[in-house]
Each structure stands twice: as structure tokens, then as C-alpha cells.
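Researcher: Let's do a round of design. I'm pasting the C-alpha cells now; please hold your answer until I've finished.
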């Protein structure tokens, strides 16, 4: 390939490639995952990351206003005229001293990258703008995804805001948080609810897209990951272009961790950073495929020689035992992560670790994040819960600089939050008790008071 940008199999020994405008998104030789790769020698790349700060003075230009496209030289797969942006990525890194004692870090060491502040309320918009730009480049008319909720919300928002394509979303039955379903419906997406879970929906959408030639926006689409790289560029920017010691991210389909690894790998390749941070991926215990493979079975990327058969055996056994993913953190309720090999590669590049956390730990961490000013959904709080564990184990040092990614907004899943703080034991049991959550450690219960002035005043004096 003599192109400046093209798609290439991630297996170094395979050599399969696709043109930049190919929408198969799988290797034509081995059927594996592909990357978007660039011939940097034929592209213009700034010689310092500080260059990107100048874009802040060009906010009248939608490409410079976007938190994704102001880094366009680092994802140069399309001419600027193809870019579809709705103002995504206006997110910043926030210092979180208030949470330091909870996770046992020294003050000044913890930062939260709050991606809930995106147009559709999750980090998915960073990837969706890149997928939409690619879809426009190839002239797609319809776009589909399987989703635990946020990808479909993002797709629905982008479709309705740009008018570029018709949105078709596949969701599992009873598995989608209300905030996300509300978005899909309100923004006019064709919503297909199948009997089954996310993993089933993912299989179907790939079949259907292939058969009908519909543009697929799941994170198997490598262009989405190009957009998600910019989350890390903004993290670096928030640290004045210094590389943190750790980046901690919840793991579902493993698109984010794959994108983050690629972002750092490329920046070092380009000489724009001198070292890579360590990555920690946090699974929920009820959806812990990566944890089991990486930490318990010792599966590694090994420069591409990862033990494919061992992984296949793992999934065959999962199938045979009908093991289904189950966690309150619905955004990471995934047993069959499509980006698994890319995630293994990112973990190798960034000397990564994987941990699992219980729903109890996730919700307690979420309540602490909320109590200190940022509202996130359950899956997002897995990063903070994971950090707490990694501190207890001494893997993360007390003085190390840590960035936790908060992937989605609090209002995505009000049910989980209300159940956690609820005074209604039946609601608690129905939503959380059956998942093994026993004690809402930081519950902020509503106070029941008769409609009587004196009683109300008494209650306020008692509690506040
Ligand atoms: C999609 C999603 C995740 C999982 O990210 P992956 O890239 O699939 O690992 C985590 N949190 C939220 C809020 C999400 O929407
Ligand atoms: Zn291949």
C-alpha cells in the first residue's frame, strides 16, 4: 500500500490490508481485527504537542472547537471537508483531591477524565464522530450497532443531528439503562430489541450489516478507535503534556483500552512523548473475560503470537456452561469483547494490569465520585473502584499520578443510583440485592417527614 492512510491486520505476520474506504473492517486474509495505519513520513505532524494549544483560539472553526478534530494531524485518515462533528470531546481532566483519601492516594495525584460531558453523555461520541466522518467518505446511508446503550445513544444523536444516515440499533432484552433507551427513542433510531443479551446482539448486527451493506459503528470499526485516541491527548493536555504514571479505564468491548494504547504508542513513535503510562483495565466480576484470560490464565499478546487456541477454548467452555455476563454496570456487561487481541496488545505496550471489582465496590465508588462533584454511571466508577484495589495491593504507589476515565454520565442509569440510596427495601433487593450488593455504604437516604412545619424544622436541624 502506498497510501497515506489505510487499514492493516493487527497480526504482524499476516500482512492483510484494506483501503481506507473499505467498510469490511476485518482482515481479508485471516478475518482478524484491523488498525488504521498511517505513513507518517508522507504526512505533516507537529513537532510538539503544544502546537495543539493554538487551536483553542480558533473556536469559530468547528474542527478546532471539537475535542477530537483539533488533534486532526494525529488521526489523518480523511480530508477536513469530510469531517462530521457535533462538538464532541469538550471534556477536561479534573483534579480530584476530594477522592484521594477514599482511594488512598496522596493529594494532587488523582485526576478524573470526565467523558460524561459529551453531547450524548458518554465517551462514545469521540469515536462516533470519526466513524461518521469515515461513513461520509464512503457515502454510507444507514448505520447500525449492537449496544449496551451508549453506542446506540451516540449513533442516534449523530444521525439526528447531522441527517447523514438512518440509525439502526440492536439491543438485548431488558438489558439497557433507561437514560440510554430514552435517547435512542427520542432521537428517532430504529430500535430492534432481540431476545438475548449484548453478545447475541453483537453477532446479529455483524451478520445483518454484512448482508444488507449497512455501515457498522461498533468498536470493531477501527475508525471509531481513532477518535477515542483523543481522550488521551486531552489527558496529556490536562497534565501540561506530561505522561501520567497510570491510566485506569473500565473494560467492556475493550475499544477504549485499545485506542489508548495505540494513542500512546503512536505518540512515542512520533517522538512526541518519551515514555508510555501504565494501563489498568477494570472488569466487573460478573463480566470478567479479560481478567480471567490475562491475570488468571496468563494470556499475553507476545508480539502477535497470542495463544489463540487457549482463548478459543475459554469461549467454548463459556458457551457450553451458558455463562452470561451479569453486572449492574451494564455498559461493561460483556463476556465476548470484540477487541480482545487489540487490548492484549495495548496491555503489552503499556505494561498493563487487569482487575475485577464487584458491583458493591462499583456502586460505593460511584457514590464517592458523586459526593465529590462528578456524576457518573456505574460502569465508569469501576475505574475508581479498581484504583482502590490496586492501591490496597500496592501495585499503584501512593505518590503516583493516576488518571481514571469516567466514561459516562450519571443520568444514563438513574435506576441504579436511586436503588442504592433508596429507603425502599424492595427496590434495593430487586435492583441490587439480587446482584450480591449487601450494604450501600454511602447511601444518602431521603428523610420522611410529616407535612408539619415544626417536624420539618426539627429534621433539618437534626441532619444538616
Ligand atoms: C462503552 C462503555 C464502556 C466500555 O468501553 P469499551 O471501550 O467497550 O471497553 C464503559 N463505560 C461506558 C459508560 C460505556 O459507554
Ligand atoms: Zn490478517
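Researcher: That's everything. Go ahead.
Model: Designed sequence:
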Amino acid at each position: 500500500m502506498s497510501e497515506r492512510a489505510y487499514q492493516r491486520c493487527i497480526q504482524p505476520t499476516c500482512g492483510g490490508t484494506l483501503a481506507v474506504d473499505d467498510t469490511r473492517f476485518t482482515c481479508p486474509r485471516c478475518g482478524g481485527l484491523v488498525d488504521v495505519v498511517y505513513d507518517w513520513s508522507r504526512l505533516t505532524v507537529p513537532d510538539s504537542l503544544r502546537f495543539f494549544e493554538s487551536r483553542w483560539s480558533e473556536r469559530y472553526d468547528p474542527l478546532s472547537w471539537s475535542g477530537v478534530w483539533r488533534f486532526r494531524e494525529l488521526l489523518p485518515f480523511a480530508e477536513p471537508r469530510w469531517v462530521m462533528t457535533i462538538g464532541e470531546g469538550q471534556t477536561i481532566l479534573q483534579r480530584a483531591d476530594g477522592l484521594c483519601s477514599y482511594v488512598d492516594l496522596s493529594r494532587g495525584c488523582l485526576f478524573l477524565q470526565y467523558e460524561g460531558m459529551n453531547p450524548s453523555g458518554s465517551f462514545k461520541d469521540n469515536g462516533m464522530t470519526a466513524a461518521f466522518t469515515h461513513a461520509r467518505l464512503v457515502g454510507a446511508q444507514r448505520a447500525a450497532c449492537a449496544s449496551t446503550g451508549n453506542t446506540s445513544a451516540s449513533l442516534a444523536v449523530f444521525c439526528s443531528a447531522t441527517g447523514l444516515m438512518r440509525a439502526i440499533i440492536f439491543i438485548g432484552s431488558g438489558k439497557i439503562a433507561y437514560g440510554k433507551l430514552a435517547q435512542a427513542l427520542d432521537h428517532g433510531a430504529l430500535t430492534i430489541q432481540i431476545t438475548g443479551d449484548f453478545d447475541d446482539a453483537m453477532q446479529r448486527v455483524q451478520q445483518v450489516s454484512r448482508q444488507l451493506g449497512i455501515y457498522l459503528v461498533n468498536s470493531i470499526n477501527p475508525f471509531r478507535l481513532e477518535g477515542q485516541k483523543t481522550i488521551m491527548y486531552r489527558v496529556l493536555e490536562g497534565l501540561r503534556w506530561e505522561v501520567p504514571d497510570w491510566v485506569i479505564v473500565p473494560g467492556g468491548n475493550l475499544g477504549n483500552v485499545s485506542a489508548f494504547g495505540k494513542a500512546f504508542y503512536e505518540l512515542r513513535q512520533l517522538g512526541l512523548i518519551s515514555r508510555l503510562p501504565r494501563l489498568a483495565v477494570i472488569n466487573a466480576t460478573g463480566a470478567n473475560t479479560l481478567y480471567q484470560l490475562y491475570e488468571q490464565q496468563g494470556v499475553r499478546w507476545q508480539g502477535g503470537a497470542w495463544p489463540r487456541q487457549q482463548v478459543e477454548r475459554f469461549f467454548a467452555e463459556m458457551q457450553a456452561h451458558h455463562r452470561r455476563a451479569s453486572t449492574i454496570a451494564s455498559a461493561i456487561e460483556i463476556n465476548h469483547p470484540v477487541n480482545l487481541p487489540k487490548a492484549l496488545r495495548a496491555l503489552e505496550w503499556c505494561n498493563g494490569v487487569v482487575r475485577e471489582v464487584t458491583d458493591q465496590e462499583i456502586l460505593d465508588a460511584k457514590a464517592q465520585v458523586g459526593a465529590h462533584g462528578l456524576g457518573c454511571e456505574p460502569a465508569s466508577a469501576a475505574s475508581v473502584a479498581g484504583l482502590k484495589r490496586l492501591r490496597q495491593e500496592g501495585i499503584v504507589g501512593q505518590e503516583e499520578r493516576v488518571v481514571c476515565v469516567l466514561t459516562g454520565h450519571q443520568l444514563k442509569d438513574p435506576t441504579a443510583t436511586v436503588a442504592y440510596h433508596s429507603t425502599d427495601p424492595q427496590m434495593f433487593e430487586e435492583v441490587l440485592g439480587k446482584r450480591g450488593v449487601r450494604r450501600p455504604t454511602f447511601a444518602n437516604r431521603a428523610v420522611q417527614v410529616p407535612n408539619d412545619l415544626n417536624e420539618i424544622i426539627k429534621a433539618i436541624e437534626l441532619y444538616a
